[in-house]
Amino acid sequence: MGKKTKEVLVRARDVRRVFTVGEVEVHALQGIDLKLKKGEFLVILGPSGSGKTTLLNILGGIDTPTSGTVKVGGVDISSYKEVQLSKYRRETVGWIFQFFNLIPSLTAGENVALALEMAGDNKDKMERARHALELVGIGDKFKMFPSQLSGGEQQRVAIARAIVKKPTLLLADEPTGNLDWVTGHKIGELLRDLCDKEGITFIVVSHDMSVTENADRIMHLRDGKLFKEDKGRPKSKKVMSE
Length: 242
Hints:
alpha/beta; 6-stranded mixed sheet; 4-stranded antiparallel sheet
């Protein structure tokens, strides 16, 4: 028997996003076509202003396209109303940002558990938060505050916060942009490991070439257009410790 083909999770067709700034139209996305399989790790590279964040915002339900369609799990989210988008963001999508956005007055465990609380899912939230921190390699930092953690550890808390609700799709916007090269490399390996072990589908947008080392596929975005695709490198065998 042949190898089983993974199902398509994300399908974007001719997605365009136009912003009006005064009397000027800004074409942030110009006919994006994208297909992503479940459990895949995709990196989209592009310079500042290329449309990376706009594309993530549309895939994540923060924004809607001016035209075109986006289907996630076979459902057209581009036609969703705000109430539906809110439910989609809460239940389906996890986010990782360049800046960690941790609440200074909360411990690492409390920051992670807050994601469950905001989703209205309070059952065993602290135990689940601890497990998420263990998955990213810092279970021993559960009671520590952000100010007591290194930059890499804070980003691991942010990743734990993103995965604790077990999202179907995880979107990362410049996740290594606020880290030194060595720490950023470790974070990239961690994301790859989570993709393999937890079955999470990742889309990472960045201008940092080092993140491509753990990708299944690499695409390039410039001036709102996807124009090139490269095969990723072999999957990492081991996640380096902090």
